[in-house]
Amino acid sequence: MGFPTNHSTFEAKGPAVRPAAGAPPAAGRRTDAVHAFDLDAVLAQFPLLVAGRRGEKPLVYLDNAATTHKPECVLSALEYYYRCANANVDRGVYPLATASTKLYEEARRTAALFVGAAEDEIVFTSGATAALNLVAYSWGMEHLQPGDEVVLTMAEHHSNLLPWQQVARLKGAKLVYLLPDAQGRIPDEEIDAKIGPRTKIAAVAHVSNVLGSVFPVRRVADAVHAYGGALVADCAQSVAHLPVDVRALDADFLAFSGHKMYGPMGVGVLYGRRELLAGMEPLLRGGGMIESVFEQHAAFADAPARFEAGTPNVAGAVGLAEAMRFLLEVGYDAVRARERRLVERLLAGLAALPDVRVHGAPHREDGVAGGGAPEPSRCGAVSFNVRGVDANDVAAALARDNVAVRAGAHCAEPLVRYLGERATCRASLALYNTEEDVDRFLSSVENAKRNVSRMIMASMH
């Protein structure tokens, strides 16, 4: 939304202009040949990246799976809220409080439309981690029985693993893992073999934060629903790359964070089916989530309020809604076309380097998702190792070239161990990355062994 200005110190900045994917680019500006995508217009919306591209070694930011940068429209939304609408929601009838509440509920409406849900099925949380813990402890604890099974993929982020470990331990349930093949995919036969009558919950990532693999969430949903179980989808790594629709995925619960999709840190969304949320106890208890309170007992408000105890991150929700609008206006077709070219370039470049091992699919193919819609086999996260060099040393060598990647287990230790590694390097792409970014990254990886040796020698003197 174009935020109004009613504060003298805010007027000079004004609302940011978001680039429409279909708008014709100005003469001389870089575009994506596959789709009308004014790359320079997109880049101009990210002030930190604009500043980072100045200097002798411009920043190449390839750590987008950890967090993305924020466009001007999101920054303006946050600034507008705190300058012009800061008040606690649902706590007052004065104009500022009603304005704040209106912005918060408009953000909920935007989030509901973004994932194809109803407004009362959208709970704002501090992020995907909080959302997944809420499902595990409020729904899982009530519905799991001794001997039940919870199905996960081996590629789960710890946020979608550790809560289920604890709940399964407390309830006497068992964790069962879907194993990816050499291409980083979950085969149909693995789903058929692991999901059965004892499966009460399947909690799976839509996209792996290590492999970049797009997992068959709808196929898993169909399998678990056939036995009366529930599907929990972790979409933290997919919402910036793929359209996410709760009906198309047939998810019972779905979680994602704002900061991985160009929104603010500290805010996220939990979608839950209305009838499931209605039967859940709140995990946190306090102000704003009650119907009435007596000395010895309390009655809780209906969802979503019952799961939003305390003062919510209103500014975060407003900024997240603006990030959603930004993505929709750029267009997922444009995002996917852009990403396809960059991923293929990156994978081909790594394949040409003799000492590099890429994990997961060696190329990006479009497949068919549930409902018949085309879907890529992998998104923008690519993990790799350089033979004979520790992953952290590789990342440090790239950092000297101002190429930002992440090294470690990426909060997915079971998967990295399953891959036979202690740690991997991960490059992850976003809509603002360029061919030059990919080429700088490849050049730096090619020289990593030599540069690591120089770093070791320098440290010895």
End-to-end gap: 57 Å
Strand neighbour order, sheet with most strands = 2-8-7-6-5-3-4
Helix segment count?
A: 16
Q: Could you name the ranges where pLDDT drops below 50 across 5 or more consecutive residues?
A: 1-35, 368-373
Structural class: alpha/beta
- Name the overall outline: globular
Q: Beta-strand percentage?
A: 15-25%
Walk me through the structure:
The protein has 461 residues and is of the alpha/beta class. It has helices spanning 39-43, 47-52, 72-84, 95-115, 128-143, 162-171, 188-194, 217-226, 246-249, 274-278, 314-330, 332-351, 391-400, 413-418, 435-446, 448-459; strands at 60-61, 122-125, 149-153, 174-178, 199-205, 230-234, 253-257, 268-272, 290-293, 298-300, 356-358, 366-368, 374-376, 381-386, 403-404, 406-408, 424-428. The strands form 5 sheets. Strands 2-8-7-6-5-3-4 form a 7-stranded mixed β-sheet, with helices on both faces. The chain has a 4-stranded antiparallel β-sheet with strand order 11-14-17-16, with helices on one face. Strands 1-15 form a two-stranded parallel ribbon. Helix 3 (72-84) packs antiparallel against helix 11 (314-330) and helix 4 (95-115) crosses helix 11. The protein is globular, with a radius of gyration of 23 Å. The chain starts with 38 loop residues before the first helix and ends with a helix.
